[in-house]
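// run 5 | inverse folding | seed 20
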């Protein structure tokens, strides 16, 4: 059941970080969101895959450090 705690913690951190960005930089976040709507789907897909790769790599590195 430890994994549920990790998943819950990850979602909580995601909400905290995203909320912080909107609270501190509301105008810039609005511009970023507007730009996302004008991007072609292929470019969004590439950005999403890159973020997944970065996240998995970071998790792997953190796992190595912990071990």
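// decoded
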């Amino acid at each position: 059941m430890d994994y549920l705690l990790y998943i819950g913690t990850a979602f909580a951190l995601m909400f905290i970080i995203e909320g912080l960005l909107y609270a501190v930089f509301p105008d810039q976040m609005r511009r970023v969101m507007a730009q996302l709507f004008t991007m072609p789907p292929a470019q969004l897909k590439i950005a999403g895959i890159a973020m997944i790769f970065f996240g998995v790599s970071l998790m792997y590195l953190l796992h190595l450090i912990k071990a």
